[in-house]
Amino acid sequence: MSEATGFITIATGADEYLAMAKGLARSLEWAGMLLPRAVLTNRKDTDLRDFYHEVIVDSTLPNSYHSKLRTVDLSPFDDMIFIDVDCLVYEKFSPPANAAPFIAFGENVTDHDWFGVTLDFVRSLDPRVRDYTVFHTGVFQARKSAVSSAVFRQALELESVIQHHTAKTRRVPDEILISVSAAMYGVTAFWPKDESFMSPATLWSRPPRLDIRLRTASTCCGGRWTSSRIVHFIHRFKDSRPYRREFNTLERLIPRCHLKISETRESAWSWRAVQESKPWQYRWWRRLQGIG
After folding, report:
1. What three-state secondary structure class fits 210?
2. Structural domains of the chain, count
3. What is the tens place of the pLDDT at every residue in 159-194?
4. What is the extent of the structural domain holding 19?
5. Does some domain include residue 94?
6. DSSP code string of 107-151
7. Of 64, 87, 140, 221, which sits 20 to 30 A from 11 (CA to CA)?
8. What tens digit of pLDDT does each residue of 128-164 get?
9. Cα dihedral angle (153, 155, 156, 159), rounded to 10 degrees?
10. 173: DSSP letter
11. For 71-118, how does the pLDDT look when each residue is reduced to its tens digit (9 = 90+)?
12. How confident is the model at residue 260 (pLDDT cuts 50, 70, 90)?
């Protein structure tokens, strides 16, 4: 398959990540994001083909963020939108129209020390660096190009260098690796950090108000309530009661997605598609949406 634009995620290792990939696919479908979907995995024994238009199996993919650093080269899409597997999409969104080879959520950093990495340190690696942008890589957009491939390959090579510099025992986050590598290649375009688009669970200052059935997500970050379109259940939050509740709700709403790609690159499966085959189910869906 060769498509222009599509969503891609990674599900490697334990069964829980395969389950999360199915939840993400269902949430994209439920939110009306009907572009083709692809998933990278190192598991052959899955039913992910019921949820994704293309399943790319590579047994060499590690069970770590190192797999993320290969998405540009392995993606079947010329223009991909990557979403971490521990995310759920609550509302339809439009990616920014930007010609940069790589763009993610972020902010310019001038004097910020994040994980021991400063602008001065990045300039010590490459004195040509002018701006250092911290990218939040739970969601990003990338185009197949020599530059984007080089940024991701170099990010992996920088791991030991940055680990030695920071002298920390915990692993260097992929956000740091990609951000430093992008700065060295002069790629500093970013979507301004905005929790109303993506809300990482680690930033919540109050319990969230989530109802994926109604496509609503209210999250409080730093005392400010926002209506998030993507909720990132990062780290331990993917095992939390709110995530499990939303995941189980999606499973009831969309029992299974047997998907085919139409000529318009939209999913052939939707609640409207069952109007003739299961009219009672279609009537129930319309009542749920408040449609007369």
Report:
1. strand
2. 1
3. 999 988 888 777 888 999 999 999 999 988 888 888
4. 3-253
5. yes
6. EEESS--BTTB-HHHHHHH-TT---EEEEEEEEEEEE-SHHHHHH
7. 221
8. 998 899 998 899 999 999 999 999 999 999 999 998 8
9. 160
10. P
11. 999 999 999 999 999 999 999 988 777 778 899 988 888 777 778 899
12. low
Angle at 8 between CA 4 and CA 14, to 5 degrees: 155
**Do 228 and 198 touch, CB atoms closer than 8 A?**
yes
**In Å, what is the CA distance from 277 to each residue of 52, 92, 252, 272?**
22, 26, 18, 10
Q: What is the 8-class DSSP label of residue 185?
A: T
Is 273 inside any structural domain?
A: no
Token pair 């491939």 is at which residue?
A: 149
Q: Which residue has the tokens 């939840």?
A: 23
CATH of the domain at 135: 3.90.550.10
Asked if residues 37 and 43 have their Cβ atoms less than 8 Å apart, the reply is no
197 in any annotated domain:
yes
